[in-house]
Amino acid sequence: MTQRYTEDEQDLLNILHADPNSLELNKYYKKYRPAFEQFISRYFINANNNQAYEIYPEAFHIMYINIRKGKLKAPLKSTLQTYLFGIGKNLYHKRFLGKNITITSDSEDWKEIPDCSDLIEEQTRNEEHKDLVKQLLSQISKSCQELLTLIYLKGYANDAVAEEMNIPTEGAVRKRKFICLKKLRDLLSK
């Protein structure tokens, strides 16, 4: 862990290992909300509290999914709060862009925010495919079911899957994933 973001990296690990319905995860959900709503209100002059309140759950969910998938991991290049602000900024642009929104540039917080629009679009696509994957999973081997469930339904990164399933390397995980997906594609073409 880097010294600069030690506390955030510990929070990241706690979020990564927290059950999705746990009080531990809820603690972090509540921790970042006030600063998030204040940031949205400062960054967008015409933003109101209801708009910031409306997009926060989705922004936090995207951050949580990115942590679980290994897209956000130590060493961090910004605080978790800053990362969450970036997601919120992009969600706000996407949802309220046509509503005469003015962006202020007097806030220093926005300068180090990563662009998360591709991640948001990817998350939406993944959600649409989850239901179909669940139906098809019941028709393949247990090991393929477990591997694909960890990757696509629980959001595990390849290294986490390797550890969970005692697979020697991430490359072996990718190969097994390819084979299992081929089986699914074959089922789809029937």
What does this entry look like structurally?
It is built from 8 helices and no strands. By secondary structure, the protein is mainly α. It has 2 domains: 6-119, Orthogonal Bundle (Rna Polymerase Sigma Factor, Chain: A); 138-189, Arc Repressor Mutant, subunit A, CATH 1.10.10. Residues 99-117 have low confidence and may be disordered.
Short description:
By secondary structure, the protein is an all-alpha fold. Helix content is 69%, strand content 0%.
How do the strands and helices of this protein lay out in sequence?
Elements: H1 6-17, H2 23-43, H3 49-68, H4 80-96, H5 117-137, H6 142-153, H7 158-165, H8 170-189
Relevant terms:
190 residues; mainly alpha; Rna Polymerase Sigma Factor, Chain: A; Arc Repressor Mutant, subunit A; 2 domains; 8 helices; 0% strand
CATH second-level architecture of the largest domain = Orthogonal Bundle
Count of individual domains: 2
Helix content: 55-70%
How many DSSP H or I helices? 8
Measured on Cα atoms, how large is the radius of gyration?
A: 19 Å
In total, the number of strands is 0
CATH class of the largest domain: Mainly Alpha
Quaternary structure type: single chain
